Amino acid sequence: MGGQQRIYKQRIASTQTLAKVFRAMEMIAASRIGAARRAATELGPYQKALTQAVAAVAIHTDLDHPLTRERVDTERVAVLVVASDRGMAGAYAATILRESERLISQLQERGKTPVVYTFGRRASAYFRFRSVPIQQSWEGESDSPTVQTARAIASELLGRFMDGDPVTGVGEVHLVYTRFKTVMTQVPEIRQMLPLTVVDAPQGDEERGVERGFQDDPDAAFPEYEFYPSPEGVLNELLPLYVESRIYNVLLQSAASELASRQRAMHTATDNAEELITKYTRLANSARQAEITQEITEIVGGADALVAG
């Protein structure tokens, strides 16, 4: 019985240590969600200004830009999968990887050749384990992405889309990521980033991006602009910036979603640890009571033996 008590006490001690770790991770994730949400929110005015500028150019000129032109010379399609660097975030990474597999299967059914890019160690490890070639991966910033990384990703994807060689270029660019709605709700999304689709738009529509298309609004009044050096030159500067800002927004949305998922997962793990501690404490007390009962029984039995002798 003494051995049982030691086993339960060891389990209680180890579970208490785990509970402290889980609670600390929950608090860290909770404290960082706010910063990730603020970063995504602060990017909103910049995206809104870019959207309005692109819409202004689009309605004042016949838009024919390489980023808006559908490519038919290649079947290669770039797929950027945005997952996490670490685990302990519930089903966050598993959901994204499942959605990416679904997208890849759909592309293959259409006769396309997916070219996989990954952001986050979980995504790269997943595809490497399944012997899926990875064109390029970015790791180490899933919960705190930087503008420099977003710019590097945008540069690579834009370069592939603008590459005229059908062997190395791509005809489409798709993103698989998690959109942050609330701390309790995050939604996996698949979005086609390139080619962009631009039509007329009401001014101030920051919610729909250029890649989703603008809706015609006959009541929307747009001022007259003069473009220098030319509308095409302005678009050459604006569209890459827009793509870069959208990718950065995707990374920020995914970071907030990862932190929210980790907070919930660690909260659940802490509750489970507390339940285990209560269970082991109850079992340890039962073992101690059984040991005491056995000792009393042995003492009484010995006393009866002495009296009988």
Question: Can you describe this structure?
Answer:
- The structure is a single chain.
- The protein has 309 residues and is α/β, with parallel strands linked by helices.
- Helices cover 58% and strands 12% of the residues.
- It is built from six helices and five strands; from the N terminus they run H-H-E-H-E-H-E-H-E-E-H.
- Strands 3-2-1-4-5 form a five-stranded mixed β-sheet, with helices on both faces.
- Helix 3 (92-109) links the parallel strand 1 (76-82) and strand 2.
- Helix 2 packs antiparallel against helix 6 (231-308).
- The protein is elongated, with a radius of gyration of 29 Å.
- The two termini are 30 Å apart.
Q: Could you provide a short overview of the structure?
A:
The chain has 309 residues and is α/β, with parallel strands linked by helices. 58% of the residues lie in helices and 12% in strands.
Q: How is the quaternary structure best described? A: single chain
Q: What is the average of the pLDDT values?
A: 82
Topology, number of strands: 5
Low-confidence stretches: 199-219
Coarse shape: elongated
Please write out the topology.
Blueprint: H1 2-42, H2 44-60, E1 76-82, H3 92-109, E2 113-119, H4 121-129, E3 134-138, H5 147-162, E4 172-180, E5 186-194, H6 231-308
Parallel strand pairs: 1-2, 1-4, 2-3
Antiparallel strand pairs: 4-5
